[in-house]
Write a structure and sequence with these properties.
The chain is mostly beta strands and about 190 residues long. The model is unreliable at about 185-193 (pLDDT under 50). It has no helices and 17 strands. A six-stranded antiparallel beta sheet has the order 4-5-1-7-16-17, with no helix packed on it. Strands 8-15-10-13-12 form a five-stranded antiparallel beta sheet, with no helix packed on it.
Length: about 190
């Protein structure tokens, strides 16, 4: 595979993530919420320069009893500065984030909300319900300035975003090269260019 980073974006109800692996490679937890006021939890993990050889499993570990469903979105990106790939990140129990970015950076977002999610200043890649929340959603945008403010419609939302620092030339053409979603025992994938 030519993916230079894998971003795992989780959304669901009342859980904590303790880590994830691809074969023997460990993801880094960038953002991870503990159950906030809305219990609409989100988390994002990254793995730069993944060694993808044939068929491998991604395994996510939860640090607390996990009786509720969550969705795990995996997006695979190229054109990323793998030596220093994260520019900024933030996570809130609310529906708006402002992230530091440089024109051409790619912002990857995940939301867990009580009702259907629609985005302002971002493009949705995938969405679906999970137990305890009305909607989960994965979105992205290519930055066009020094900061990017994104929001989604539901005020009772867990929202996480990371800014991927792109290699020279920026991220104007850096869209996911492949995406997949794991929800309980359901897995699907498809090209999302």
């Amino acid at each position: 595979s030519d993916a230079e980073v894998i971003v795992l974006s989780l959304a669901g109800f009342d859980y904590n993530v303790s880590g994830a692996t691809l074969g023997s490679q460990s993801f880094t937890i960038v953002n991870e919420s503990t159950a906030g006021g809305s219990n609409d939890d989100v988390a994002q993990l990254v793995l730069f320069s993944p060694a993808i050889n044939g068929s491998q499993n991604i395994s996510v570990a939860f640090s607390s009893a996990h009786g509720s469903e969550s969705r795990v979105y995996a997006s695979y990106w190229k054109g990323v500065n793998t030596a220093d790939g994260l520019r900024d990140s933030d996570i809130i129990d609310g529906n708006s984030l402002t992230l530091t970015a440089v024109s051409g950076d790619v912002v990857v977002l995940v939301a867990s909300a009580d009702s259907s999610t629609s985005w302002t200043n971002a493009t949705e890649l995938s969405s679906g319900a999970a137990y305890g929340v009305g909607d989960t959603s994965l979105a992205y945008l290519t930055a066009d300035g020094t900061s990017e403010t994104v929001s989604c419609t539901d005020s009772s939302t867990g929202l996480s975003g990371i800014v991927l620092r792109m290699a020279s030339g920026g991220g104007a053409s850096a869209v996911p090269i492949f995406g997949s979603e794991i929800s309980s025992k359901v897995l699907f994938g498809g090209i999302v260019r």
